[in-house]
């Protein structure tokens, strides 16, 4: 009872009238905890996937959200720093989804910018772990940002985009999938 009272007291002190909705991310192309489909696997570096960016749909962004960013990252890559597979930033605040194949078809929301992946190009770069490695984890995250735009060019590498995104994050939601070969 004391915990509930403290939480209610904190909410009333800060003027909160209702609990904030939790930000959520869903996809018809990615199932949390499951292996990634061939459609989202890279085509190159020994991988033979279709390299189609997945559909992503989000909801529950907090009040004050001025833009969104999406990032895809493999923390298991044997690089010492992981591997950036996709970054999209400056997605307008009135957008709540990215269609499947939007990266390759150049159908991202107006104003959105794709940063450079660790493959060395801008746009989506699917999963392609080294042959024989245990399956890698691929984290797709949408970030609600407190700024309209990040001051970055399309040549910005994933780590730089990540720095600016995290410095301006209000909330985030993720889906983690796996892939091995």
Automatic annotation (TrEMBL):
InterPro entries: PEBP, PEBP-like_sf, YbhB_YbcL/LppC-like. Pfam families: PBP (PF01161). SUPFAM superfamilies: PEBP-like. CDD domains: PEBP_bact_arch. Residues 1-21 form the signal peptide. Keywords: Signal. It comes from the Bacteria. PANTHER family: PEBP (PHOSPHATIDYLETHANOLAMINE-BINDING PROTEIN) FAMILY PROTEIN, UNCHARACTERIZED PROTEIN YBCL-RELATED. This is YbhB/YbcL family Raf kinase inhibitor-like protein.
